[in-house]
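Repro:
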Amino acid sequence: MNVTIRAAQPADAVACGQISYAAFKAFRERHGFPAHFPTVEAAIGRAEFCINHLSSYGVVAECEGQVIGSNFLDERDPIRGLGPITVDPHLQAKGVGRQLMEAVLKRAQGSTGVRLVADSFSMSSVSLYASLGFEIKEPLLLMSGRPASKPSREIEVRPLENDDVGDCAVLCGRVHGCERTNELRDAVINLSPLVAFREGKVAGYVLTFTTWPSNHAVADGEEAIQSSLLAAAILNSGPLSFLLPVRQANLYRWCLSEGFRAVLPMTLMALGKYQDPDGFYMSSILY
């Protein structure tokens, strides 16, 4: 099979989205887990965002003039976020995924580090990433549901504004050793982020609890994340969802006691710089 890897173009968005939707749906349904994208339109929208964002780099695999796969690199902040990477379900296990990974990692050379989140049960994917230098850092569970409790008055939670971005970036740097300032700025425009205060100081923030792939959260204590979840439930009538690092055992037990349930196992993997978190956090689909 003669495969060409080239830069993704806006005209590729529909094909990339359709392949992403089909690839995730087929694989996860085969293992009894929910699809990554609720609709093909959502997958196309994600592809459009990745292709059109000025700080995103994308490649497609092409065979006989047809797009058969894609991969993306989020370059908004010092740590690069990789994915989604998908290949046409009928053309998998033929080396296309490795070619897409190698192209994006070549682009990432010289960066502080690269991270991704993979389905834990996808042995072929986890093995591919490990062979390319990635190391498993954190077991994650996608949690879904609505909490039973009401927010505590000890933590104030309100919508995150532009003026809060600097303090939130400092907190992220303290917890993770790296900041995600540009992602925070994007969230103020495109999402509904929340910030938690303890005695007037930023104690945590969350980008969104309604669109888990776009979320990440950072806090100096688990009560700040708990309060943010409880506040989000008041602001949103539907189910909440988030990727929880389950080594945060007390927070995991609290989520279970509140009515959240685990629906999908995933794994955070890193290449390059990585600092064990000094605080509490939730991951996005990137890291």
